[in-house]
């Protein structure tokens, strides 16, 4: 076994690898750029080596710099994580030439599976079900139209070297095939330097389901069940779960056996993932093989008890697999939510900055990982598990240079329904402040009927949120629960205020047991019957709710139960009430006495400022250029200025015709969200 391994990566995956290596008694080496000098993975590793500027193409993906770090530290093996150099055959070759073990598959497997056309041909030869299509090179648009007609519309036109949705078009007729071929070819050439295109049948009602495989260098291979990854936004996964709510045992076995057959066909050794598209009739078709550890690997670990990182290290050291296919048992259900530094209320624009508050939910161990003594943290045992894989900390910064992932929050429970409920509570318990983040959106998905039923496809987000995400509107049941909790909490705060020192003699302030609660435009008149353990809150219509929980004024998290069911509220104080965030909703909750509520109803409503004649900065960023000047008339859709954020340039355009009256920022200025860039007459 290795004494020391280097992790050629950063962030949460570097931290994840360090945990398994530490458990195995292996020392670790981190590499870091200027931007990651104080990063969590650097603090966790036994050694750390600086490798260059923040830009990945000058640090994390420069093979020579990684090789120099290996030489400096004497590392015997390298784990590449995912992204960066993880599927770069030249990196694997460089390690092999230097006598350093690559904790990943052989070079031949990386090369074979890295090309979509080659991988599909190999899959066909291994009798793996593939989507009907044309795998050869396509000369021009007219040939593309002919092939599309033979396959049968709709078809998917894809770049051979593609990824992340680039170079991909759907065509429903000849005209779209002709146009899509040229667009895909151009996009592929500019994005990948490779304009080869192939065409395949477009699967309707598609679900994205992948099989985890594990193989050693001695010809042994197993599959560890599947993961459902259908909740995607712009071809990027958002929520994953294992197993899939759609598959039956027969389909699972068939997919698993074909995945293993493909792995053996390319002499695969290490952890890998075979991705399939599955239609509504459970017909499945090979998409691609990822020759690395997947982002969503924790859900497989949670239902199987197999530490995939540990197994990768053992395989790279030449050990045989310690498990056979008969040893693989799928226990319970696991769900993963990817927390990103993206503002869902602004079309998921990146949000960078400092984490002024970062308090994940307490990790709890349960299920197969606990039984096999493989749990990654020192956590108490419970009926449900909570796991948080992260690479950030409170006070740390979300950089503009890398992927905006904050954490991967996972829950496990004996059933899917219980795992989803555990995720709801965990998301509500996750405190992140200082940046925009997608926790409200993740919470909304957890409550969406289509997701809860398991009847979703890869089009879920596009279909259910076609205009983007603008928050959650809670139903009457949820509003009543929050109203009852906040009324009880307000009473606790009022009692505390009556006990302040320095009161007038012979003056005792009485706390009323009646309250009027207004939230989301709805008003409830309540009576609070408090006792030492909680309160019974009665509504005007005769309904009542039992509220229990320990909350102290000033605490930002209220962990309550309402009629025995858990309800976690993020709490901030506002005048006459609270700002409450729960289940994806962000509410101003006013708790007043009857008289206060009566007077408040007479107050004029405060309207938000009129920004209709202003161009506001939609994200923290740098002004690259301003395309207009004061006094200029602009037309709808005209470019006004360019803002750079997360190394991407965003052109801001006029929403309507107008005349520029004032310009407040120029090229080189750094702006915060909602800073006024220019004004119009």
Question: Can you give me a brief rundown of this structure?
Answer:
This protein has 681 residues and is of the alpha+beta class. It contains 18 helices and 39 strands.
Note down, in words, how this protein is organized:
By secondary structure, the protein is an alpha+beta fold. 28% of the residues lie in helices and 32% in strands. The protein is built from 18 helices and 39 strands. It has an 8-stranded antiparallel β-sheet, with helices on both faces. It has an 8-stranded antiparallel barrel with strand order 24-25-26-27-28-29-30-31, surrounded by 4 helices. The protein has a 5-stranded parallel β-sheet with strand order 3-2-1-4-5. Helix 4 (89-97) packs antiparallel against helix 5. It is globular, with a radius of gyration of 28 Å. It starts with a strand and ends with a strand.
Major β-sheet annotation = 8 strands, antiparallel
Overall mean confidence score, pLDDT: 92
Q: Report, as a whole number of angstroms, the end-to-end distance.
A: 72 Å
What structural class do the secondary elements suggest? Answer: alpha+beta
**Low-pLDDT regions:** none
Give the overall shape. Answer: globular
Percent helix among the residues? Answer: 25-40%
Query: What's the count of strands?
Result: 39
Radius of gyration: 28 Å
Query: Which strand order does the major sheet show?
Result: 14-13-10-11-12-15-22-20
* Share of residues in strands: 25-35%
Annotation field: number of helices: 18
């Amino acid at each position: 076994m290795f004494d020391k391994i280097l992790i050629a990566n950063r962030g949460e995956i570097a931290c994840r690898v360090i945990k398994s290596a530490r458990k195995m008694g292996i020392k670790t080496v981190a590499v870091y750029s200027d931007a990651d000098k104080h990063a969590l993975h650097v603090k966790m590793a036994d050694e750390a080596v600086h490798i260059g500027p923040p830009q990945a193409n000058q640090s994390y993906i420069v093979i020579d710099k990684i090789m120099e770090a290996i030489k400096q530290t004497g590392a015997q093996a390298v784990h590449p994580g995912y992204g960066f150099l993880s599927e770069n055959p030249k990196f694997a070759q460089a390690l092999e030439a230097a006598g350093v073990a690559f904790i990943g598959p052989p070079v031949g497997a990386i090369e074979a599976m890295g090309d979509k056309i080659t991988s599909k041909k190999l899959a066909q030869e291994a009798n793996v079900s593939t989507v009907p299509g044309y795998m050869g090179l396509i000369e021009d648009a007219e040939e593309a139209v002919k092939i599309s007609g033979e396959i049968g519309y709709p078809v998917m036109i894809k770049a051979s070297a593609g990824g992340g949705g680039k170079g991909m078009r759907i065509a429903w007729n000849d005209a779209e095939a002709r146009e899509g071929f040229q667009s895909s070819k151009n996009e592929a050439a500019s994005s990948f330097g490779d304009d080869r295109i192939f065409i395949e049948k477009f699967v309707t009602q598609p679900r994205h389901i992948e099989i985890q495989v594990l193989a050693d260098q001695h010809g042994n291979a197993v599959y560890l069940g599947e993961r459902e990854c259908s909740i995607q936004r712009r071809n990027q996964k958002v929520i994953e779960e294992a197993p899939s709510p759609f598959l039956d045992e027969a389909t699972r076995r068939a997919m698993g056996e074909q995945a293993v057959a493909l792995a053996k066909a390319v002499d695969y050794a290490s952890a890998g993932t075979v991705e399939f598209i599955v239609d509504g009739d459970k017909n499945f078709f090979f998409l691609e093989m990822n020759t690395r550890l997947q982002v969503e690997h924790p859900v497989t670990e949670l239902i199987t008890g197999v530490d995939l990182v540990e197994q990768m290290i053992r395989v790279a050291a030449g050990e045989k697999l310690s498990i056979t296919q008969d040893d693989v048992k799928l226990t319970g259900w696991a769900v993963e939510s990817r927390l990103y530094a993206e503002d869902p209320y602004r079309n998921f624009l990146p949000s960078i900055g400092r984490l002024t508050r970062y308090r994940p939910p307490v990790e709890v161990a349960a299920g197969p990982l606990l039984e096999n003594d493989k749990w990654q943290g020192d956590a108490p045992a419970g009926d449900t598990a909570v796991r948080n894989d992260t690479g950030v900390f409170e006070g740390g910064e979300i950089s503009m240079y890398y992927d905006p992932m904050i954490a991967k929050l996972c829950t496990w429970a004996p059933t899917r329904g219980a795992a989803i409920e555990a995720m709801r509570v965990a998301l509500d318990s996750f405190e992140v402040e200082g940046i925009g983040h997608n926790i409200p959106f993740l919470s909304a998905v957890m409550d969406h009927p289509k997701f809860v039923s398991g009847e979703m496809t890869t089009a879920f987000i596009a279909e259910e949120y076609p205009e983007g995400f603008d928050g959650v509107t809670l139903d009457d049941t949820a509003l009543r629960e929050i109203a009852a909790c906040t009324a009880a909490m307000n009473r606790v705060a009022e009692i505390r205020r009556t006990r302040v020192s320095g009161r007038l003699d012979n003056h005792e302030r009485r706390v009323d047991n009646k309250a009027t609660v207004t939230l989301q435009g709805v008003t409830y008149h309540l009576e609070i019957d408090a006792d030492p353990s909680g309160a019974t809150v009665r509504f005007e219509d005769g309904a009542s709710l039992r509220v229990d929980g320990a909350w102290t004024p000033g605490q930002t998290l209220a962990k309550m139960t309402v009629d025995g069911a858990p309800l976690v509220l993020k709490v901030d104080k506002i005048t006459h009430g609270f700002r409450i965030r729960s289940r994806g909703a962000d509410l101003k909750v006013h708790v007043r006495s009857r008289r206060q509520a009566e007077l408040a109803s007479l107050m004029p409503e405060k309207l938000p400022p009129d920004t209709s004649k202003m161009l506001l900065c939609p994200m923290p960023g740098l002004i690259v250029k301003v395309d207009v000047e004061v006094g200029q008339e602009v037309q709808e859709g005209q470019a006004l200025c360019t803002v750079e954020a997360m190394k991407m340039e965003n052109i801001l355009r006029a929403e309507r015709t107008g005349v520029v009256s004032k310009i407040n920022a120029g090229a080189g200025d750094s702006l915060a969200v909602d800073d006024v860039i220019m004004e119009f007459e």
